[in-house]
């Protein structure tokens, strides 16, 4: 029997030593977890990631180790953090939280398997060759959240039809911003509304953006899909509440924190998927053979308590379409 046929028959049993061959004897395979977020606000999501790993047969501290690196919303830190994980000889590199993270990972290594999770189109951004055949050392989960901005604008208009001037919070350092803005402007023209763009990529700019929105007297707020804003979620929700602005966000977590409404995918489901794919790679699967996972469901969440505080009546059709109503 040929060696290749023998390995094929053994399947996963033979794949494990191949996946871990770079590890020193007696050392656990190591996941390098690179994220644009902050550890505190992402802790509950790590539970979902670990659940995906567990379902795939891996438990941290027992048969796999995890090294974490957090950019805390500052994308310029990512290249150095990615290089540091690569230098540690990790078995697989997870790149979580927006297009800049997997791009930094790809620049740091072309050999270590990379599993990404981000909101944009990985084909359009050059991360993979196609959804079904990624090619190279990269695959993962795309949330497609950046493409949902026009839909979010329409939902915000439906709930706050009296807002003629709508503020849009955008991070100009986030690559997807160049795609988000044209889509939003076209959607605004369709519904006959004007937009005020407020840019913010760090805390000082975020404060200035808040002030500019107040000066312009916007009547509602759309917060662009961007991992930096996730790390400042409570501040943004508090600003909208203080200024009595109906606001829409990308994830359920904003609505739970007091935001008016959100429209997007389930983050916990996506983190679990990412953990599952990481487990497959640890077992020997090649990223090129793992199709990029795409969302199959988007959820609409409305915080009725916040709507009442803002004096808004939620249309019956909108409440009926909601996947979750927070009271």
Distance between the termini: 66 Å
Most strands sheet: 7 strands, mixed
Helix content: 40-55%
Low-confidence runs: 1-25
- Tally the structural domains: 2
Q: How many DSSP-defined strands?
A: 12
Class by SSE composition: alpha/beta
pLDDT averaged residue by residue:
89
Globally, the shape reads elongated
CATH architecture of the largest domain: 3-Layer(aba) Sandwich
CATH superfamily of the largest domain: Response regulator
Q: Can you walk me through this structure?
A:
With 327 residues, this protein is of the alpha/beta class. The chain has two domains: 3-143 and 266-289, Response regulator (Rossmann fold); 146-264 and 299-326, Response regulator (Rossmann fold). Helices cover 41% and strands 18% of the residues. It has helices spanning 3-10, 12-19, 43-55, 78-87, 100-108, 149-159, 177-191, 203-215, 227-231, 233-242, 252-256, 267-282, 304-309, 316-321, and strands at 30-35, 65-70, 92-96, 114-118, 138-142, 165-170, 194-199, 220-223, 247-249, 261-264, 299-303, 324-326. Helix 4 crosses helix 5 (100-108). The chain is elongated. The termini are far apart. Mean pLDDT is 89; it is low at 1-25.
